[in-house]
Structure formats: structure tokens, C-alpha cells
Design brief:
By secondary structure, this protein is of the alpha/beta class. Helices cover 24% and strands 28% of the residues. It has a single domain, classed as Metallo-dependent phosphatases (Purple Acid Phosphatase, chain A, domain 2), CATH 3.60.21.10.
Length: 265
């Protein structure tokens, strides 16, 4: 059984200390094999905020794979945004903005959907779409195949349509056809699960959105939340997605569990 903890939008600089401790306790309780962090690690991409994020990551028991979000680029430091937009991110989380995690039963492909020229909107290029598709096509038969980026590819609220990834019309069906099981995202602080369809009727995938893991910048009445993904390469292929919400009196509690049927290999 592979166990993955999906975190997003931690927004260090606006983190709630009580939620930080509760999430560390949850991670110790769940003992995931990997933590997947889908961007907006900081609020304003400052060195001190990345240092706080680094300190948090070091306290996790599982290795962390991350991609940047739009808040991980400087907003007010225009010189840094123009000439070294990922400088502080790279110093904290490594040079590779699009890392790949490849194990016998897991393939996670990171995609950098941020653009320094854009304030918040995300985008994928044709080259990125092709790179991810080629890598998915090389996946081993028993691997759970995940694409992780910051910006969402599907919305459940009309107000979020403007936040969707630019280039998703091409990327989503091509990635699903190439074998993607899950597309992980964040950005809008709203957790949900939406089915995805490839161009072929037998191809299906799932868009998995995480809420804000630690920030006080919650969305209305939606609490801090994270996702647990569990996968066992049986026949038929399935994975389990569990959402954990933070409740002030109890810490993180399990609130929703979904059994996902994955496409046959």
C-alpha cells in the first residue's frame, strides 16, 4: 500500500500555529510514504517565509516533493520577479521546478504552472504538455500515475472558472489518454474531487483539489484541509482518497472518503 499526503497552499507568513502542530501530529499518525506539496508554500516568497516552510518540512517524517505556486514568486520586489523570480524558492526547495518522483509503484510528475509575467493565473505550454505525456507513456504497469501542479483544471463553483489553468483544454485529455490517474492541484483553497475524461471513452482520471493546509486565509466557512491518497496496485485498479479537515477542538479529522476506480492498464 502506497500512502501519500497531499498538502497545498500552506502560505507560510499567514500560518496558524495551532494548525501547524495539528498537521504535524496528523502526519505522524498517518505515516505517509511521501508528502506532495502543490504550491503556494509561502505568502509573499520572502526568505523568512521559506525558512519557516523549510523548518516545517524538516519536521515531517516523510520526504516532500513540491512545485511552486503563484505566491512563491515575489510580488512587490519587481527586480527579483524580473531577474530571479524563483531564487528564494530554489534555495529552499531545490533547483528543479518540475521534479519527478519515480518508484516501482508510483510516478509523480511535477508541472510548474506559474508564470512570472502573470499575477496569479496559471498556464502550461505545448512543450510542457508533451513532456508530461511522454513521461506518462513510459510508466510501469503497476505505478499510480500522478500529475501535480498548482492551478486547478476543473471547477465546481462558477466563481472559480477564471482561476482555471490556461491550456487545460489540451493538457487534460492528452494527459488522461497518456495514462494520468490523478491531477493534483490547489490555488483556490477549496477541496473537491472531479472526474476527468480522455478523448477515448475507456480513459478516465480524477482532478483532486486540496484546500489550504495551514493558512488563516481560509475560504469562507471551508476549514483547513489535506488529502490522503492510498493505492494498492490490484485488479481492478483503485485508490482511496480521504479528506481531513481541521476542527479547532479536535485537530484534523476524517470527513470524507472516496473509492476511485482507475483506468485499466
Amino acid at each position: 500500500m502506497i500512502r501519500l499526503l497531499h498538502l497545498s497552499d500552506l502560505h507560510f507568513g499567514t500560518e496558524d500555529p495551532g494548525v501547524v502542530q495539528a498537521l504535524l501530529q496528523l502526519e505522524q499518525q498517518l505515516r505517509p510514504d511521501h508528502c506532495l506539496l502543490s504550491g503556494d508554500i509561502t505568502q509573499r516568497a520572502r526568505r523568512g517565509q521559506f525558512a519557516a516552510a523549510q523548518a516545517f518540512v524538516r519536521r515531517l517524517g516523510a520526504p516532500v516533493m513540491a512545485v511552486p505556486g503563484n505566491h512563491d514568486l515575489p510580488l512587490f520586489n519587481l527586480a527579483a520577479r524580473l531577474f530571479n523570480p524563483y531564487g528564494n524558492y530554489r534555495q529552499a526547495f531545490g533547483q528543479d521546478l518540475e521534479p519527478v518522483l519515480d518508484t516501482p509503484r508510483l510516478l509523480v510528475i511535477g508541472v510548474n504552472s506559474t508564470r512570472p509575467a502573470r499575477h496569479k493565473d496559471g498556464q502550461v505550454s505545448a512543450a510542457q504538455v508533451q513532456r508530461v505525456s511522454r513521461r506518462l507513456q513510459q510508466a510501469a504497469p503497476g505505478q499510480l500515475r500522478i500529475v501535480m501542479l498548482h492551478h486547478p483544471v476543473r471547477a465546481i463553483e462558477e466563481s472559480d472558472l477564471s482561476n482555471l489553468l490556461i491550456g487545460r483544454e489540451r493538457a487534460v485529455p492528452e494527459w488522461v489518454d497518456a495514462g494520468a490517474d490523478l491531477l493534483l492541484g490547489g490555488h483556490i483553497h477549496l477541496p473537491y474531487l472531479v472526474p476527468l475524461q480522455g478523448s477515448q471513452p475507456e480513459r478516465r482520471g480524477w482532478a483532486v483539489q486540496a484546500g489550504t493546509g495551514l493558512s488563516t486565509r481560509i475560504r469562507g466557512a471551508v476549514p483547513n484541509s489535506v488529502n490522503l491518497i492510498e493505492y494498492d496496485a490490484g485488479v481492478p485498479r483503485r485508490c482511496c482518497l480521504t479528506r481531513w479537515d481541521y476542527l479547532a477542538s479536535q485537530g484534523f479529522v476524517e470527513v470524507e472518503r472516496s473509492e476511485l476506480r482507475l483506468s485499466d492498464l
